Amino acid sequence: MLATPRRTPPDIEDDVTVDVPDTTADDGSEPDDSPSPCAGIDCGGHGSCLVSDSNEAYCDCDAGYHADGTTCVEDCEPKCGDRVCGPNPLCPDESCGDCEENKTCNDQGQCECTSKCGDRVCGPNPLCPDESCGDCSVDKVCNRLGECIPKLEADCTEHWCLIPAGDFAMGCSDDSCEPGDYSCAHQGGYFCDQNTYPVHSVTLTRSFYMKRTQVSQKEWRELIGNNPSNFNSCENCPVENVNWFDAVTYANRLSESEQLESCYTITGCTGSVGNVLDNCTVTFSSLDCKGYRLPTEAEWEYVVRAGTTGARYDDVGFIAWYGDNSESSTHPCGTKDPNGWGIHDLYGNVWEWVHDNFDHNYYSDCEAGCTDPVGPTSQKDKPSKSMRGGSYSNPDSSMRAHYRNYSVVNTATRMIGFRLVRSAL
Fold first, then answer.
1. How many CB atoms lie within 10 A of CB 357?
2. CATH number at residue 408
């Protein structure tokens, strides 16, 4: 066998050319040896990793899967069932729905009211009408303020309601501010005026009839023959611009027209009824008078409360023409909701003259055992009479059961009228 000749490598000094690959990039820069953004990303085995134009990895998932970061997860079909809100229990990243304003989603996926009833103890939650703040006992009814108030049976004719004798706590007890704290009051709170406390027990031993509405302009004109009212284009609106002398004179005239006893002896007047009547000397007979008269302050507050103890028997907008809704004018009598005894307009429209002399400190003089009070017999202030109820121009702070006002007896303004009572003897 012939031996294969061995090749001898060329001498390095020989002129030999060796080809070496060119690793320079086309732009002349050195090549990027960093790993691909997709390195180590398998998209959960259900897709392909791709690199975006910004050199970021993302998953292009297979059908039935969707990207969740750098992996592909199976699509979920929501199964909310009865759930109307919150996350789907099978697909936490998907929602069963959202709740409307004032409601939040509970653990069972149901929308619950988040508003609080506050002091309301009955009736619908004002922000969530489908939920209740509670129920009243069978002898009470719920008013719009969410208060349970006595269920009364009104005993009324067309113009008069019979008010039974009884007792009650008279005076201010609904204060939310310290006396004289005007800063608190300016923020919507109330404080008790000095002339409205202490709260004291009052007993009324006589039942009496109260007029369902304030005396109207039509009623005044038919009996007296004139109309002193400022808002005189509305005959069913309350008569106003009458002073205390006018009011008691009207009461006597009505008694005379029905052959009833006159409750006032009126002498020495100047002027005429409805036309600057003044300088009268008035003597009241007694609460046993069978004719018409002005209510005492105690009778008026007893009626307006109708067994309640708060500031009002219902929401002020439904029971009163006052500063926020009157458009600076009186309105026809009896167009707001009555109280439990069937009496209208006890708040607002016009202030109502009552029988009593006014004294700032009278409640302190009658702190207990007050039976059939008719007010102070003498006055520490200038001669003036009490007024109750507020008017069309006053704020809601005047629309409170205990709130007292007063004016001198010959004052007649477009904000003052009256209503009458008659003892049931």
1. 20
2. 3.90.1580.10
16 pLDDT more than 50: no
Whether 165 maps to a domain, the answer reads no
Instruction: Give the angle 257-258-259 at the CA atoms, nearest 5°.
Output: 95
| Long-range residue pairs from 382-385, CB within 8 A, at least 24 positions apart, any chain | 382/408, 383/357, 383/408, 383/409, 384/357, 384/358, 384/408, 384/409, 385/244, 385/353, 385/354, 385/355, 385/356, 385/357, 385/358, 385/409
Strand 404-408 versus strand 384-388 pairing type: antiparallel
Tokens describing residue 251: 């009461």
Peptide bond preceding 198 in cis form (omega within 30 of 0): yes
Q: Are 274 and 246 in contact (CB under 8 A)?
A: yes
The pLDDT assigned to 126 comes to: 81
Domain that residue 334 falls in: 209-423
The pLDDT, as a whole number, for residue 17 is 46
pLDDT tens readout for residues 180-228: 665 665 555 666 777 887 888 999 999 999 999 999 999 999 999 999 9
Q: Where in 69-196 does DSSP place strands (E)?
A: 71-74, 103-105, 111-113, 124-125, 128-132, 140-142, 148-150, 160-163, 166-170
Per-residue pLDDT reduced to its tens digit, 329-378: 999 999 999 999 999 999 999 999 999 999 888 877 776 568 999 988 87
Structural domains counted in the chain: 1
Looking up tokens 């005007």 gives: 182
- Beta-carbon count within 10 A of 220 CB: 26
- Rounded to two decimals, the pTM is 0.75
Give residue 29's pLDDT.
55
